[in-house]
Amino acid sequence: MRRDQNKACYRNFKLYRFADTELERLYKFLLELNSKEIPYCLYYSVYAYDNNQLAVTKDGKKSAVWNNKAALNNVVGTQIIVTDFDDITEDEFLLERLKLAQLGLETLDIFTGHGFQSIILLDKMTEDKTLVKKVTNLMLNKGFRIDSKIKDSARIMRLPYTYNCKELSKKDIENPSVIKTFIYSETEKRYNLEYVLERLEGLESVTESQKTIEEIEIKEIEEKVKTEVITENKVRNVIQLKDSLEDLTYNKERLAELYTMLDIESLPEPILKMLEGFRMGYANSMLLFLTMYLKEQGYPKSTIAEAMLILASQDRFNYAWSKDVVKTEVSRFYYSNYDWRSIFTTELQSFGYVEYNLIDKSILTINNYVFKNLNKISSSSFYIYLKLLLKQDMTGQKIFTVDEMCEVVGYKRRAIFKHLDDLVKVGLIDKKRMNRRQGEEYKYYLSIFTVDNIGFTKISKGSIKLLLNMVDFKQLNQTQLAICMYFKYICYGGKTEANISQESLGNALGLNRTTITKAFKGIESEELIYREKEDISDFKFKYNYTIHY
Q: Whose CA is closest to 213, among 223, 226, 228?
């Protein structure tokens, strides 16, 4: 649906099956649409329909053959249950979503521009044409804040990763906006229809009087955020739907005592203001922003989760949040592709402005000679090399004394000398005595490789900083660091999956099978690499690896 002053329908697109050729047609259709640079709202039909049967409108008109579509008379079946939470804030939606989660129902959620869709995937097709109406009435009766107009099986819903252009067709809006839609959260879990209906039926129904004060009714789920007391069916207080942000003071000393896992001194002022407590109407945006910002600073997921749980326990602004929800959301956000810069919108900028150039997201290029010689140096030697490599890249310092290495790496002189021999012998570091007559010590510099026929590996500096920080915080050891870095090498080109035998991995790193097995327990517990065992024969198996950093 075109939404500018020339409002008109472009055309329908019919997908007949999920074959590669059909998906290629869909790709070309979207490409054709987007190339015109005209704002369109795109929708999908909830039910599959019989294209051989022409759609008939309520007033009896038939669709043209070329423009047939889903209608009450030709829909066949569906494999999804769709609910529409329209005109609802993100924090309010999370409450509704949590109700479903507590019933054991995972949903695929779509941000539609002014609200959210929640989709429950079914394990098989249903031909029940009354299902949409049945589910909508049931959920309204159970107190869910869904759109009561979603009732017929010919319903179309907004397609994710397209645009909500509704405001372009409204003449009373001076500066209409075009909003990009996207998948808010994903799931592949499918449910039996009877099970879903049974779980929803098990909820307590709400009375009409309760519906009128739905946002502040006393329920356990709403106590996890903020409720006001209701007595004699009268509202004593009104919930403040959004914090005014009048109080933006913070106590750095108190924050340093609370968040011992964070370097409070290095964090910008807006972050410190947020760490004082979640705010009504901002909580989910704050959690997403803080998670992605701290991840880019190099903090591991476990440290960020620990910090966010402390934040959730603060009640300075009368906003409490379920710890289970916070842990789940931190994990989901951490492994997403969000960029904190795109999240730091005008709304969050009310806390103050964060300079975009504070973090270096560029790539570090490492000669493959380094990875091909990991079996000739110790894991601690490799840790030292990475620390010096990052220091050189960030500051331009190319020559280091042993004392300067101690400062960069955090090792004592004796430990530095012990591992320098390995690095010099294999050719990763060169040394030069500056003034022998005056008794000056050697100075060291990272080798400039002349061998370029074995290629290079480009790795995000953020990933390297993350792994080094985990070693510094004793969440990983140097052996685990070497394994993780080697997987970044074999997962070249931005890939996240790899197949390698333990024997090959051991040979590449100079480690035995027992050491690798022990190291992987810690790596998997930190959710950095996931292993899936695949049997090759009765006596042989291999691991398929997926990296998450």
A: 228
